[in-house]
């Protein structure tokens, strides 16, 4: 069918298809919408009493488009089981409007209609055959329906109950067996389980509302979820139907657990890295303080104003380095105090030494110019 082809082509995510006509290769069952029985009828007084008697008879089936869910393929499956080949048992296509005349003119001996037991086109066919035969039609059972279902997995055995078509007398007069096909609501197999589970839940939860407009909704069934099903059930639908839907935390428990472990490892690694980085910065600041103390000693031995100027400029660069954004994070209260004290002492020493050099040039002490660690 076109719906099955659209599902296989990934044009749609869901499709409706009948099991005996065309099923998509990529489809899995979410819901059984309804089952259609193969109802085989003959006029009152017909010698045909069971499906095996159809051999050698003219069997009618409804034309497509007449409003019936007729299927020649289903008829062929039934007749083939009894060895009724087309040469000896003609299959005759009949329009619904021509069905009565087809019987009265002996163009057919029996007719098969496929649809809901007791409703729709099948009920109309029952009434037409009753009129054509002048009384209650003969309902022809397919007593080997279970064997047929085993041979053709797309078929099912079904029991049509007594009185399914009402009337007086009751039609049929007693329960009888036949074969059936299912119309399925299918989901593309690649769809997320959660999505299909939600759609399945909505279909069943809103069934009363839908049935008010489309009574067929009352016939929806849950498919068998066992692994041996002929048509596999979508895991998302199966989880909902079996009550095994997972909560968010159940579904992603492993991911969350592993994620928490990874975050813990990353946090520990980040903390270790930060600790090492901060330690390096603290060492850098402490090195700057030591440089200030070295300059303090050199200041007291400076032999010229030029040397003092160089020491003062180097002190400015050290202060600049210490207060850079990446170093400032390492300045705790103790290091700020030490840095400030070293700078103050250096400034005072520079002032005193400059004053001494300016007022008494003879006060130059033996001096060995230090190697200034400018910004190192």
Question: Can you give me a brief rundown of this structure?
Answer:
The chain is of the alpha+beta class and 376 residues long. 46% of the residues lie in helices and 15% in strands.
Could you walk me through the main structural features you see in this protein, from its secondary elements to its overall organization?
The protein has 376 residues and is of the alpha+beta class. The protein is 46% helix and 15% strand. Strands 1, 2, 3, 4, 5, 6, 7 and 8 form an eight-stranded mixed beta sheet that branches.
Set down the secondary structure blueprint.
Layout: H1 2-8, E1 14-18, E2 27-42, E3 59-62, H2 72-81, E4 91-94, H3 99-104, E5 110-115, H4 120-133, E6 138-140, H5 145-151, E7 156-160, E8 176-188, H6 193-205, H7 207-213, H8 235-241, H9 248-251, H10 253-300, H11 305-322, H12 325-328, H13 333-359
Parallel strand pairs: 3-4, 3-5
Antiparallel strand pairs: 1-8, 2-5, 2-6, 2-8, 7-8
Helix pairs in contact: 6-8, 10-11, 10-13, 11-13
């Amino acid at each position: 069918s076109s719906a099955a082809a659209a599902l296989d082509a990934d044009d749609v995510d869901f499709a409706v298809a009948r099991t005996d006509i065309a099923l998509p290769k990529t489809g899995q069952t979410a819901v059984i919408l309804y089952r259609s029985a193969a109802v085989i009828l003959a006029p009152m007084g017909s010698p045909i009493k069971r499906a095996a008697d159809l051999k050698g008879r003219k069997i009618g089936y409804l034309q497509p488009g007449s409003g019936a869910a007729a299927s020649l393929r289903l008829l062929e499956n039934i007749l083939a089981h009894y060895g009724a080949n087309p040469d000896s048992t003609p299959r005759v296509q009949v329009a619904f409007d021509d069905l009565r005349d087809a019987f009265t003119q002996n163009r057919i001996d029996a007719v098969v209609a496929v649809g809901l037991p007791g409703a729709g086109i099948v009920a109309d066919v029952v009434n037409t055959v009753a009129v054509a035969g002048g009384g209650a039609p003969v309902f022809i059972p397919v007593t080997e329906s279970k064997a047929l279902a085993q041979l053709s997995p797309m078929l099912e055995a079904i029991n049509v109950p007594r009185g399914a078509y009402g009337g007086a007398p009751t039609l049929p007069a007693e329960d009888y067996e036949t074969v059936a096909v299912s119309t399925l609501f299918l989901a593309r197999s690649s769809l997320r389980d959660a999505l299909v589970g939600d759609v399945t839940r909505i279909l069943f939860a809103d069934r009363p509302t839908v049935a008010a407009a489309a009574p067929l909704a009352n016939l929806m069934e849950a498919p068998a979820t066992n692994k041996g099903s002929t048509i596999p059930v979508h895991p998302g639908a199966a989880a909902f139907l079996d009550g095994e839907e997972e909560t968010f935390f159940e579904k992603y428990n492993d991911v969350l657990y592993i994620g928490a472990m990874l975050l813990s490892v990353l946090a520990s690694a980040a903390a270790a890295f930060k600790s090492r980085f901060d330690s390096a910065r603290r060492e850098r600041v402490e090195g700057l303080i030591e440089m200030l103390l070295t300059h303090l000693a050199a200041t007291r031995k400076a032999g010229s104003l030029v040397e003092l100027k160089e020491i003062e400029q180097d002190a400015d660069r050290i202060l600049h380095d210490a207060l850079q954004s990446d170093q400032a994070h390492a300045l705790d209260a103790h290091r700020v105090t030490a840095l400030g004290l070293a700078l103050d002492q250096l400034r005072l020493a520079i002032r005193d030494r400059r004053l001494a050099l300016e007022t008494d040039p003879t006060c130059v002490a033996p001096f060995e110019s230090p190697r200034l660690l400018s910004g190192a």
